[in-house]
Amino acid sequence: MSWDPAALPDQSGRTVVVTGGNAGIGFQAVRQFARAGARVVVAARTPSTAQDSMEAVRAETPGASLAFVRLDLASLESVRTAAAELRALGPIDVLVNNAGRTDTVSERQETQDGLELIVGTNAFGPFALTGLVLPALAPGGRVVGLGSFATRLVPLDTDDLQSRRRYRAFRAYGLSKHAVHALAFELARRFEAAGRVQRSLVAHPGFALDQRSFPLVVQTKERGAWPVVRAALDPAAGNGTFWGPRFGLTGPPQQAKPVAASAAAEAGAEVWRQAEAATGVTYDLG
After folding, report:
1. Residue ranges of domains in the chain, CATH in brackets
2. Against a cut of 0.90, is the pTM above it?
């Protein structure tokens, strides 16, 4: 099907949650969902920046329906509190797990729960949030994970997912995104096995910067949000599919082919096991 990012399907009456919706790709996705008429919940760490971002959206789209929930994915206590608030706002039609870290710190750090900081924030935190919000996910609802081209540059190592043996910031980031892919595709398989019509998808933004755009190399973050929004809203975007820019790093959004390592069922089962052990969260898909 053709897809026009400037003419999105009407989302009136639907609720979309965007983690990290106060900045970057998340903010651009919030703008697009709001223009389409959705009620958008911005889940972010800092209330002041979230409020500023929501005011910017309201200025652009008068009457936009927006709400804020405080969420720090590096804290499982915060994740549990935020999940309870989000359930109260349900039913949720789309949960976009966008928030994450791209730190370049030279030494390994941990969350307050003792998890390696980048994988804990980018993968295990969203895993916990999704599992806890799942009871409020609408019957035809979707979960969209934010993938990355970095999975093509860093090999998956499920034996060292938390970088205990060796640490490099970019390696930790790449491992975290492998984990995002693996968990999202595993959730898709579990949805299907349980006979649920909900969908789990992955989208990656390519190489996106705030303002500059160089065709085939870099695109704006507004365009970087296009694959995320298409995965969230396109009626033809099926369960377990992967979306990204047409030319890899830039271009219109289309279905793409994920890295085989983290799309494999074996990887999904192992990363899922580790996510459950790390967070204490299990999914009720009965």
Report:
1. 15-279 (3.40.50.720)
2. yes
